[in-house]
C-alpha cells in the first residue's frame, strides 16, 4: 500500500533519498527543513536551517554519512546520530542543485546555479577540482560515469550535456539538446518548452545514459563506448521531465511536471530497431544533422521506440520534484517528493 510520510515538513519537499538497505529515508525541503524517517513512516529526526532550502540529500552506501545541501553549503550527518552535523563542506559560490557520489565514494560532486561543478575529495575534506566555463546557465544535474572513475556528466538550463574528465580537468565533449531532432509533427507539447536538462541517470553497467528534458522528452544515449552518442528519444510526458532513475540495467523510471511516472524497458528498443531493418535513430553529436536530413523518419522511429519501450504509466497526485527507487524486503518501492509537504512511498510492480 502507498504510505504518506507526513507531519515532518511544513512546506514543499524538494529532495528525497533512501539508504542502501532500504530502512532509512531522508528528505529535504523548502525552509531548510531536513527530515529522517524510518521505512515504517516514523519521523526519527528533524532539523531546520532557516532562510535556506534543502535542495539535495544523498546517502552514502559505503559509510554512515548522509550528505545534505543547503544553499551553497554541504552538511554531513552520521546516520547513527542525527542530532547534529559532524562536518560542513564549503566551496560552491551559489545554491547547490544536486549532490552525487562516485562509485567508490571517494568523490562528491556538487553542481550549482553559477554553472560550476565542485568535486570534493571526501578523504581530504576539500575541493579537489572545479569544473567551469562550459555551462552558460544553471547546472542542474550531475552523474558520475560508471566504470570510468575520472569521468562525470553534467547538464543544465543552457540545454547542454557536458562530458568531463574531472582529474585534469577537461571537457571531453559537449552535446546541445537544442540540436536533437526531438519534436513530433502531431504533438505541439514537445515544441513549447526548451530542452533544459533537469536530471541525468546512468545504468550501472555503463551502457546507457538518460537525460530528463524540460520539453517532455527522455534523451537516451549509448554510453558503452568512449564517446557517448544519442540513439533515440522517448515520448510520454506532456510536460517537463524532472527525474529519471534506473531500477535495473535496462529499466528506467521517469517522473515529471505532468504528475506522471512512467516505467520504460530500454531493452525493447532492440526489437524495434530490427523491425526497421536494423537502423537506429540517428546519433546527434553537437551540431551535426540527423541522418539523411530526415526529421520525419527520425520522429517516426522515436514514436515506435517509445511505444515499444513504455511498460506502464502511473498518475501521481502532484508534480514530481524528486524520486528514488529502492528495494525493501525484496520488493521494489519508490519514494516521491512533490509540491506537497509529504513524502510518498509507493510499491512498484516491476
From TrEMBL:
Gene3D superfamilies: YVTN repeat-like/Quinoprotein amine dehydrogenase. This is WD repeat-containing protein 53. Residues 291-304 have a biased composition (Polar residues). InterPro entries: WD40/YVTN_repeat-like_dom_sf, WD40_repeat_CS, WD40_repeat_dom_sf, WD40_rpt, WDR53. PROSITE patterns: WD_REPEATS_1, WD_REPEATS_2, WD_REPEATS_REGION. Keywords: Repeat, WD repeat. WD repeats lie at residues 6-40, 234-274. It holds the Pfam family WD40. SUPFAM superfamilies: WD40 repeat-like (SSF50978). Residues 272-304 are annotated as: Disordered. PANTHER family: WD REPEAT-CONTAINING PROTEIN 53.
Amino acid at each position: 500500500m502507498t504510505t504518506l510520510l507526513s507531519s515532518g515538513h511544513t512546506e514543499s519537499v524538494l529532495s528525497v533519498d533512501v539508504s542502501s538497505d532500504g530502512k532509512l529515508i531522508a528528505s529535504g525541503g523548502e525552509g531548510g527543513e531536513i527530515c529522517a524517517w524510518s521505512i515504517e513512516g516514523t519521523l526519527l529526526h528533524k532539523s531546520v536551517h532557516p532562510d535556506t532550502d534543502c535542495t539535495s540529500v544523498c546517502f552514502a552506501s559505503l559509510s554512515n554519512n548522509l550528505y545534505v545541501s543547503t544553499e551553497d553549503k554541504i552538511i554531513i550527518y552520521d546516520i547513527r546520530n542525527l542530532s547534529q552535523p559532524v562536518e560542513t563542506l564549503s566551496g560552491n559560490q551559489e545554491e547547490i542543485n544536486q549532490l552525487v557520489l562516485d562509485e567508490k565514494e571517494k568523490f562528491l560532486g556538487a553542481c550549482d546555479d553559477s554553472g560550476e561543478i565542485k568535486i570534493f575529495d571526501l578523504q581530504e575534506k576539500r575541493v579537489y577540482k572545479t569544473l567551469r566555463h562550459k555551462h552558460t546557465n544553471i547546472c542542474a544535474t550531475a552523474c558520475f560515469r560508471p566504470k570510468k572513475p575520472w569521468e562525470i556528466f553534467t547538464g543544465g538550463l543552457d540545454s547542454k550535456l557536458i562530458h568531463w574528465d574531472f582529474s585534469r580537468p577537461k571537457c571531453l565533449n559537449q552535446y546541445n539538446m537544442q540540436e536533437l531532432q526531438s519534436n513530433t509533427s502531431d504533438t505541439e507539447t514537445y515544441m513549447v518548452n526548451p530542452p533544459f536538462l533537469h536530471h541525468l541517470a546512468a545504468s550501472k553497467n555503463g551502457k546507457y545514459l538518460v537525460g530528463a528534458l524540460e520539453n517532455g522528452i527522455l534523451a537516451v544515449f549509448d554510453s558503452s563506448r568512449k564517446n557517448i552518442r544519442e540513439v533515440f528519444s522517448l515520448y510520454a510526458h506532456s510536460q517537463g521531465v524532472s527525474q529519471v532513475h534506473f531500477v535495473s540495467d535496462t529499466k528506467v523510471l521517469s517522473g515529471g511536471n505532468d504528475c506522471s511516472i512512467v516505467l520504460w524497458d530500454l531493452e525493447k528498443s532492440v526489437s524495434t530497431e530490427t523491425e526497421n531493418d536494423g537502423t537506429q535513430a540517428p546519433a546527434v553529436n553537437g551540431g551535426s544533422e540527423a541522418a539523411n536530413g530526415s526529421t520525419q523518419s527520425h520522429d517516426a522511429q522515436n514514436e515506435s521506440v517509445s511505444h515499444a519501450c513504455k511498460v506502464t504509466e502511473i498518475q501521481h497526485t502532484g508534480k514530481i520534484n524528486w524520486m528514488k527507487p529502492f528495494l525493501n524486503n525484496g520488493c521494489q518501492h519508490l519514494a516521491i517528493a512533490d509540491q506537497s509537504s509529504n513524502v510518498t512511498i509507493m510499491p512498484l510492480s516491476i
